[in-house]
Design brief:
- This is 2,3-bisphosphoglycerate-dependent phosphoglycerate mutase.
- GO terms for molecular function: phosphoglycerate mutase activity.
- Its EC number is 5.4.2.11.
- It catalyses: (2R)-2-phosphoglycerate = (2R)-3-phosphoglycerate.
- The chain is α/β, with parallel strands linked by helices and about 240 residues long.
- It contains eight helices and six strands; from the N terminus they run E-H-H-E-H-E-H-H-H-E-H-H-E-E.
- A six-stranded mixed sheet has the order 3-2-4-1-5-6.
- Helix 2 crosses helix 3 and helix 6 crosses helix 7.
- It is globular and about 50 Å long.
- The mean pLDDT is about 95.
- The structure holds 3-phosphoglyceric acid (3PG).
């Protein structure tokens, strides 16, 4: 069986090079096109889905909508969850990544971005970026910051409790999520150690297919419609 993972198309803050995390920014023009292209590639390759999963963030939700629209499958059940949200970037959310590197040094910013266990500085609960009053998080213990292991814990819990049972029931699944929530899932699925995951990046808007065995463990994976070499640091075509 196969599942498809897709990182949302380019967002407005990817374009502006800002730390985003749980900030709910929309897709850029290029991101809208990437999402459409992803749907076209899926359609041309004969992909069909029974159930979709996405986060509470509109860049992933819209990417999914656009891709499903291209497939003429907007009717399928879509499960949304905060547990597939991007890694919470704490007090870095909104800051420009290059300016932050100038201020704190490349090495520190690399640790914040790519280590598994270093947490970015935490948000203060009085900070307007802390969304305690947002109704979508009313039942959620909103993190103040997260490292990749924190993200992995919630993503894998959702995967195990909600997605695996659907796969085992024979449902065809697409998951539209985020750079780090997908990295966290891949880290778990492919059992990648901390130093391996640091160098793994997920391109925006490119469907990533995982073939799974009957125990829902990965056999192989590949990107759809991505000719030639992938950008530096993206997950290799085969592991
Ligand atoms: O949340 C963000 O800023 C990005 O979309 C992912 O960021 P990263 O490449 O710094 O992990």
């Amino acid at each position: 069986m196969k599942i498809v993972l897709i990182r949302h198309g380019q967002s407005l803050w990817n374009l502006e090079n800002r730390f985003t995390g749980w900030t709910d920014v929309d897709l850029s023009e290029a991101g809208l096109k990437e999402a459409r292209q992803a749907g076209i590639i899926l359609r041309e390759n004969g992909y069909r889905f029974d159930v979709a999963f996405t986060s509470y963030l509109k860049r992933a939700i819209r990417t999914l909508w656009i891709a499903l629209h291209e497939l003429d499958m907007m009717w399928i059940p879509v499960h949304k969850t905060w547990m597939l949200n991007e890694r919470h970037y704490g007090a870095l959310q909104g800051l420009n990544k290059a300016e932050t590197a100038e201020k704190f040094g490349e090495e520190q910013v690399h640790l914040w971005r790519r280590s598994t266990n270093v947490k970015p500085p935490a948000l203060d609960k009085n900070d307007p970026r802390y969304e305690a009053d947002n109704p979508k998080y009313k039942d959620v213990d909103i993190p103040l910051t997260e490292n990749l292991l924190d993200t992995e814990q919630r993503v894998v819990k959702y995967w195990t409790d909600h997605i695996v049972p659907q796969i085992e029931a024979g449902q065809k699944i697409i998951i539209s999520a985020h750079g780090n929530s997908i990295r966290a899932l891949i880290k778990y699925l492919d059992d990648i150690p901390a130093d391996g995951i640091a160098n793994l990046n997920i391109p925006t808007g490119v469907p990533l297919v995982y073939e799974l065995d009957s125990s829902v463990r990965p056999i192989r994976h590949y990107y759809l419609g991505k000719e030639g070499p992938l950008p530096d640091g993206t997950i290799p075509k085969t592991l």
